[in-house]
Amino acid sequence: MFERIKAILAKEFKQVLRDPRMKTVIFISPLIQVILFGYAANKDITYIPTVIYDQDNTKESRQLLRKFTYSKYFVPKHYIYSVQEQNAVLDKGIASVVLRIDRGFGRNLKSGKEADIQLAYDGSDSNTAMVVMGYANTIISQYQEDLSQEAIADQPLLEEVPKIELRDRAWFNGNLISRNYYLPGVIASIVTMMSLLLTAMAIVREKEIGTMEQLTVSPLKPIELIIGKLIPFAIIALMQSMLITTLGVFWFHIPFRGNLLLLLLGTCVYLFTTLGAGLYISTIASTQQEAMMSVFLFYTPVFLLSGFAYPIHNMPIVIQYLTFLNPLRYFLVVIRGIFLKGVGIEILWEQFIPLLAIGLSVITLSSLRFRRRLG
Amino acid sequence: MTRLNLKRIRAVAFKEFIQIRRDPRSLALALVIPVVLLVIFGYGLSLDIDNVRMVVWNQDNSQFSQDFVLNFRYSKYFEIVGNIDNYRDIQRLLDNGRIMMALVIPKDFSHYLRSGKTAPLQLLVDGSDSNTATIAMSYVNAVVANYNVHLLSKTFQDQGLVPPKSLSQRPRIWFNMGLESRWFIIPGVISMIMMIIAALLTSITVAREWERGTMEQLISTPVKAPELIIGKFLPYFAIGFFDLIVALVMARFIFFVPFRGSYLLLIFLSMFFLTGALSQGILISTVAKTQILASQLAILTTFIPTMLLSGFIYPIFNMPKFVQAVTYLVPARYYIVILRESFLKGGTLATMWDEAVFLFIFASIMLTMSVKKFKKKVA
Lengths: 375, 379
Prior knowledge:
heterodimer; A: alpha/beta; 14 helices; 5 strands; B: 379 residues; alpha/beta; 15 helices; elongated
């Protein structure tokens, strides 16, 4: 039995890697994705294109605006002088926010009246707008704090004024770098896509060009055929996940606080599902085009509803329950737990059990179906 | 320059149509995937951050501090899931992701504030998802800042003084007043759909002919390279166009994303994008002789850049300069601007001129390159 599995393993490896360009793609693809995720997939807003419309132009208004521009987040792109210009910069998406101070601001402040600043946000990117609003709020409340301090200083009768001081601390990712959160997840996305697509397409290819018949008349038992078909892709996926981990840790300095072996174990358990699903798709699809589209149909919901980029607790309740069936959901918690939190099996077993259960059912179902189809 | 023969193009297109029809499940998938994507993005995903799950450890436990907690309880941004009385539980809940943050009110909180001192307030946040964490922390900041202003004016009033001058802000959000993330995401999804359908579907059509050995047959017919490419191209153009219309209708009438621009202009410009994406698919297909390789290349050069480098989710102005430079090569970047302007900003040809020109250049380059490359491969 092992002889036969070894033979088919060798054949599969040769077939996948025969094309030197395929070898390159298998290696380059994770590389490019890690680099893109590392550099481009960044939701930490550190640069806010800002346009300033200061009609007041007094010491007070400039002082407030300086609070914004000195914060290093708000970068002034233009100074404008009319409402038309304001409409134009927002329409064209040049500014994320326009800071507008009307005439009378300085006078109002000096005479103790309420003065106001107008902020026009480009809401078309709602998420960025939310972050920018948060920063602007902080700056405005700092300015308010300065005003309060001045007022207190002006009242010698007042002894002390109560105040709450917020001391916040972020755990796990102290500097709040979103890269640390996303990059480990790339392992999951690449392993999923690669193992699904390679498995499904490679098997359908044999059907398409007619070599599957040859395999079925050989003394290979279906289970040997399945093992021989799936193991090369599992090995490729494991190698890719190691490559991503290495790059992430050494190039992007993602913290790795947990156990590497546990990560490999988690990946192996997760592969049961994706290889199984790839096998299943191969029994349905009759052309590689169909296999590829089916992989996409499977991949997108799994990927999008996993918590990879969009928090699960923000989803409608029904979908939140559905995500319990999504193996990637558990795998991501495992990956992030190992990378960022350094937790071990004593906490992650809660993820491993459903992951294993889903994996075993998928692979069993697909193997049975594959055998029936073959017979 | 060879003259194109319409009859031969029609013949190739007809053959391709038959091939697609014979594989009805592929066709069905090409129509189902866009709907699935739109439904997931439209209903399932939201970047809106409300109901931040938190616990409170009120060590002070006075009426005063309980009143302060009400500021969080009655806010739609927070959801207090429980009270807690030790750090171990906080650690555990943060570890397994049950809560986003924990608020710790120290023992002397009310005592400090009553005697006019500064009271510390501790906030522990799960920073692993830094975007959500930043936004959640700014909500807490706003609550605290408001409360401080309230404390200040109360102190002044108690002393019979006029409350100090204050600064107010009048925020106004353009184009998307309610900050609905759906309005932001759906136009982006349309560009992703166009790219997936156009480039992925076509990326394997030529490779398939090589793999099955039918390419030799095609070459031996009088069909010329451009005719073959255009013939292969047409059926997929029809599918892509159909998907575009479905996506627009769904965006408008199921997800109620406002549309403030011109449909005709958007559809017209979409054709440039579609032509470019389809040609890119055919180009990939010509370069890669096997379908597996073609599919990998297509994902790498179309799907991934469209997801990450187009401004679909991650703002381009926030990327490092050299990555920003690369984004100029991603056609979806221009198409997404056109889509967003058409939906949310009421864009006209005058405001989207640059993007239109770039898409036109993209389409012409891809079409020429796919024909050239194909000629060389065949020769």
